[in-house]
Amino acid sequence: MLYFGKGLTLLFWLAAIYNTLVPQTSPLGNLLNWVAPAVLVIHSIEMVFFSWRFAAVGRRLPMLDRVQIVLFGGFYLMRLFKKEQAVKQISMGDSNSAS
User: Fold this and answer.
1) Distance between CA 26 and CA 85 in Å, rounded?
2) Is there a domain that residue 62 lies in?
3) In a domain? residue 99
4) Half-sphere exposure (CA, 13 Å, Cβ side) for 53?
5) How many domains does the chain fold into?
6) Which pLDDT does position 98 carry in this prediction?
7) How far apart are CA 62 and CA 36, in angstroms?
8) What confidence score (pLDDT) does residue 39 get?
9) Does residue 23 lie within any of the structural domains?
10) Which domain holds residue 89?
């Protein structure tokens, strides 16, 4: 499901870039002119917010993660949270086996 969402998001960005290079006069072209910057701003705010959240728990987000948050938004964040939970479970398992 995440790959499908990321694929649709990538198609959206490609359509927005194409519309910037070759402006479309249809209502869809005008819609992309308004929606693409709004999505970019929202995803940028998400990136800043989650960079602060991860820094608060002692984990700094690499630049590649930040770029993917800006591009894919919540679809990439879901993958990032799953990875964090797996790391937590592994570390909890290690601390339980050490006791």
Assistant:
1) 45
2) yes
3) no
4) 11
5) 1
6) 53
7) 25
8) 96
9) yes
10) 2-94
